[in-house]
Amino acid sequence: MGPFKDIGVEKTGHVALVEIRRPPHNYFDVALIRELASAFEALDADPGCRVLVLAAQGKAFCAGANFGDDDRDGSALLGGPTPGAAHLYIEGNRLFRTKKPIVAAVHGAAVGGGLGLAMVADFRVTCAEAQFSANFTRLGFHPGFGLTVTLSAVIGQTKAALMFYTSRRIAGDEAFAMGLADLLVPQEQAQRSAVARQRNRRELAAWPHRDARHAALQSC
Fold first, then answer.
1. Range of the domain at 82
2. CATH number for the domain including 39?
3. Within a domain: residue 75?
4. Which of the given ranges, 57-61, 73-77, 195-199, 208-212, has the highest pLDDT on average?
5. What is the tally of structural domains in the chain?
6. What is the rounded distance in angstroms from the CA atom of residue 192 to the CA atom of residue 157?
7. Is residue 1 part of a domain?
8. What is the pLDDT of residue 201?
9. Between residues 82 and 139, which one has the greater pLDDT?
10. How does DSSP assign the chain, residue by residue?
11. Given this model, what pLDDT does residue 75 score?
């Protein structure tokens, strides 16, 4: 597996930690999503891995897309018209094909596509200091990264629509209250709690959990 430039992968027992390492904001581009997808696919094929924990270094979990000065309209990031450019959503779809359970440790801002990345996970551990925002309409974009499906499935169509329409930032404690996050812990414990809870689940069997995630995704 690897080598990787912008992520780290560590496996302890049956739990694999996949950590984004572009601090402080962890902005993503096609290259980062490709690395994450490659790591997820390798871990999916690893019989010694039963669950993935997605986390990040720095201040933010993922503060959104990296729109550089040479990509002001986002065309290169989204896969055109640059010849041979990799399409973001081709790589993103690889993440959603992961069959093993995924837990996201969201310790800071998850904004735009960063929120979409957090929603790839089956469960989210967060803290009061985290912020969740679907800010696409504020930027003049259609909501992306599968959020029109994943966000509605988790918190319901009405709450998801409000997040899209207002683009407001939702703090971690409110996210927990509305069902967007599944566990609320102190900020410094977000990643550690996500990993520890999975390691402590002795009943975590490989194939039933793998099939359960696959069935849940198929039903969406």
1. 7-219
2. 3.90.226.10
3. yes
4. 57-61
5. 1
6. 32
7. no
8. 58
9. 139
10. ----SSEEEEEETTEEEEEE--TTT--B-HHHHHHHHHHHHHHHT-TT--EEEEEE-SS-SB--B---TT-TTSTTTTT-SSTTPPPHHHHHHHHHT--S-EEEEE-SEEETHHHHHHTTSSEEEE-TT-EEE--HHHHT----TTHHHHHHHHH-HHHHHHHHHH---EEHHHHHHTTS-SEE--GGGHHHHHHHHHHT-TT--HHHHHHHHHHHHHH-
11. 44
CB 49 within 8 A of CB 11: yes
Cβ atoms of 112 and 138 closer than 8 Å: no
Cα torsion through 102, 56, 4, 117, rounded to 10? 50
Token output for 33: 């999503």
Record the tokens describing residue 81, joined without a space: 């018209």
**pLDDT tens-digit profile of 160-215?**
999 999 999 999 999 999 999 999 999 999 999 999 887 765 445 554 444 555 54
Identify whether the C-beta of residue 67 lies closer than 8 Å to the C-beta of residue 124: no
How far, in Å, CA of 219 to CA of 202, rounded? 27
Q: For residues 138 and 149, what is the distance between their CA atoms, to the nearest angstrom? A: 19
